[in-house]
Amino acid sequence: MSIPIAIIGTGIAGLSAAQALVEAGLDVQLFDKSRGSGGRMASKRSESGSLDLGAQYFTARDRRFAEAVQQWRARGWAAEWTPALYHAREGRLSPSPDEQVRWVGTPRMSSITRAMLGALPVQFSCRITEVFRGDQHWHLQDADGNSHGPFSHAIVATPAPQATNLLAAAPKLASVAASVTMEPTWSVALSFAEPLDTPVEGCFAQDSPLDWLARTQSKPGRAPSPDSWVLHASSEWSRHNLDLSKECVIEALHGAFAEMIGCAVPPPVESIAHRWLYARPATAHQWGALSDGDLGLYACGDWCSSGRVEGAWLSGQETAKRLQAHIANHAWN
Ligand SMILES: Cc1cc2nc3c(=O)[nH]c(=O)nc-3n(C[C@H](O)[C@H](O)[C@H](O)COP(=O)(O)OP(=O)(O)OC[C@H]3O[C@@H](n4cnc5c(N)ncnc54)[C@H](O)[C@@H]3O)c2cc1C
Ligand SMILES: NC(=O)C1=CN([C@@H]2O[C@H](COP(=O)(O)OP(=O)(O)OC[C@H]3O[C@@H](n4cnc5c(N)ncnc54)[C@H](OP(=O)(O)O)[C@@H]3O)[C@@H](O)[C@H]2O)CC=C1
């Protein structure tokens, strides 16, 4: 057994790095503060079935990511989603079809990260509070006072604000992470006993508290009923209403939805609200990943790249590539 590499975060970035490292013959040990993997690609189980409250779909513009998505499709983890798309501007709803290929996890968004995790060693419900280096190796401290280690390298794969403290051993990396602003998103799911009388299956919105809405049943592999909708508030609305109660957020976004959708909207049979505090970086970056190869500390995530699923996956690959290159150089010297 070689000394494993610690990976903090089992979102798509951490899992992308883990997969590449394991394929290269290295051992990894993953940690996540949540009860399951997926991070912002997680799905919530509810009485109305599984609901994608975070990432709604993803596009694949980079060749390497497109190849990975084809493998996911072949294994049944992902499928193309072809919604009837609309846009809403100044209160007007219009069809807005396009040629973009969009993908979703099947039968839920979290299927992809669950499958990527497979049997990799992981500790859930474990919030890492400190990443520190001893004489030779890395050690982690968690919020319950437990220590973990030794590890040959450490990879921090959390959103930037949560990465800053964990990168304290490399102040330059920590200050880059600290410079990233991440915007919040309030997400609400509403389920209706009877299907709403509308052809809309996905809608980009402007001039509204909402910036996106999607009909769950239009995605491949989802339960056929009830008629569930996921609504995302814009960053601006979410920022201004960050501390509103879930009940008030549901009421406000239900109202905005009813105003936008152009058909009768009865009271929902189930409603869920989730606040994503670190939903997306305010601006895209082109770092790919952050690394201090000599120290053996790395950081990855969507905030190092495009702020989307594709960017997070690519960032994990970049981290694994840099780490392997450093090991290879070290072996030669
Ligand atoms: C509402 C919403 C809608 C979105 N819609 C889309 C979309 O339609 N298309 C698209 O491409 N992208 C979308 N995104 C963005 C996409 O979800 C992210 O870019 C991507 O999932 C980020 O992956 P990641 O691995 O970098 O981070 P995350 O998924 O955030 O993973 C980080 C993990 O680290 C864990 N963690 C954090 N701190 C600690 C700690 N101290 N100790 C242990 N574990 C820790 C977290 O629990 C989490 O599991 C959306 C995001 C949100 C929130
Ligand atoms: N809410 C969050 O926290 C969050 C949301 N994110 C959203 O994720 C998607 C992913 O972006 P990607 O570039 O992969 O997808 P698209 O090409 O589908 O969309 C990009 C933006 O382009 C506009 N757009 C695209 N298609 C259409 C269309 N048929 N009609 C109208 N407009 C379209 C739209 O932008 P605007 O509404 O015009 O501003 C799309 O947003 C994307 O939706 C993100 O918003 C990512 C991370 C966090």
UniProtKB/TrEMBL annotation:
Keyword Transmembrane helix: no
TM stretches of this protein: none
Catalytic activity, reaction form: 1,6-dihydro-beta-NAD + O2 + H(+) = H2O2 + NAD(+); 1,6-dihydro-beta-NADP + O2 + H(+) = H2O2 + NADP(+); 1,2-dihydro-beta-NAD + O2 + H(+) = H2O2 + NAD(+); 1,2-dihydro-beta-NADP + O2 + H(+) = H2O2 + NADP(+)
Cofactor: FAD
Family per record: Belongs to the bacterial renalase family.
InterPro entries from the UniProt entry: Amino_oxidase, Bac_renal, FAD/NAD-bd_sf
Domain called Amine oxidase: residue spans: 109-323
Name of this chain's protein: Renalase
Coiled coil: none
Binding residues annotated for FAD, in chain numbering: 13, 32-33, 40, 56-57, 128, 302, 309
Its biological purpose: Catalyzes the oxidation of the 1,2-dihydro- and 1,6-dihydro- isomeric forms of beta-NAD(P) back to beta-NAD(P)+. May serve to protect primary metabolism dehydrogenases from inhibition by the 1,2-dihydro- and 1,6-dihydro-beta-NAD(P) isomers.
Enzyme Commission code: 1.6.3.5
Annotated binding of substrate, by residue: 57-61, 96-98, 185, 308
Keywords for this protein: FAD, Flavoprotein, NAD, NADP, Nucleotide-binding, Oxidoreductase
Enzyme class, first EC level, given as a word: oxidoreductase
PANTHER family: FAD/NAD(P)-BINDING OXIDOREDUCTASE FAMILY PROTEIN, FAD_NAD(P)-BINDING OXIDOREDUCTASE FAMILY PROTEIN
The keyword Nucleotide-binding is assigned to this record: yes
Species assigned in the record: Stutzerimonas azotifigens
